[in-house]
Amino acid sequence: MQVFPKFLLSAFAPAQFPKPEIPEIAFLGRSNVGKSSLLNALLGSKQAKVSSTPGRTRSINFFAIHDGPQKAAPKLLFADLPGYGYAKISKSISSEWPKFIEPYLTDRPQLALCLCLVDSNIPPQESDMQLIEFLANANRRLVVVATKADRLSGNGRAKAKAELCQGLNVDDILMVSSKTGAGLKDLWATIQAAAAE
Ligand code: GDP
């Protein structure tokens, strides 16, 4: 799918969030899960300027997703949230995050879907579980996306999927690879379905 992404802004406080007018999709995951790679693969463009520049890591980075190259209003926003999981033992997922992240996740009216990224090569992690529980308690729609699926064989993939579903207590997981593009079509379909509701 060809889209025309445009980097909008990095927000460090709620006052800087874009006006909530169109559906928003949040990307969440532990650092190094492959979030930047996935955003780049989905957006298929360096225009998105997804980077791990230190200045951006504690902010929410917003991207407007346009259907075409014209200046027509975007129909969708992507919100790239800071990675978590630096601290080995953290009381809660939010203890590592700037204060405005938690209210963003609970209060943002246009947040249509939270994509919770986990690494398909790593067993279920406590921090991922904490985030999923937090979002479920906030009544947020979420989909778990397992990255780097190209590193697993067919059998290993099925096993990893079953283990993650069980460990994270979810019914289904989307397996994707930014490297091969596997699963990205399904992910786009999931994003568009959530945005259309
Ligand atoms: P972020 O910290 O979550 O933004 O993670 P990055 O996108 O920077 O990726 C972290 C590491 O995982 C890098 O070394 C990437 O090359 C690697 N990586 C990311 N996505 C994939 C993937 O789909 N397949 C493989 N094999 N490696 C990946």
TrEMBL record:
Keywords (alphabetical) are: Cell cycle, Cell division, GTP-binding, Magnesium, Metal-binding, Nucleotide-binding, Septation
This chain belongs to which protein, by name?
Probable GTP-binding protein EngB
Q: Which family does it belong to?
A: Belongs to the TRAFAC class TrmE-Era-EngA-EngB-Septin-like GTPase superfamily. EngB GTPase family.
Q: Which GO terms describe its cellular component?
A: cytosol
Cofactor names from the entry are: Mg(2+)
Q: Is Cell division found in the keyword set? A: yes
Record the organism: Silvibacterium dinghuense
Q: What HAMAP family does the database record attribute to this sequence?
A: GTPase_EngB
Q: Name one Pfam family in it.
A: MMR_HSR1
Mind listing the GO molecular function terms for this protein?
Answer: GTP binding; metal ion binding
Q: Which InterPro entries match?
A: G_ENGB_dom, GTP-bd, GTP-bd_ribosome_bio_YsxC, P-loop_NTPase
Keyword Cell cycle on entry: yes
Protein's job: Necessary for normal cell division and for the maintenance of normal septation.
| EngB-type G domain: residues covered | 21-197
Instruction: Name the PANTHER family for this protein.
Output: ENGB-TYPE G DOMAIN-CONTAINING PROTEIN, MSS1/TRME-RELATED GTP-BINDING PROTEIN
NCBIfam families in UniProt: GTPase_YsxC
Q: Which domain of life is it from?
A: Bacteria
- Any GO BP: division septum assembly
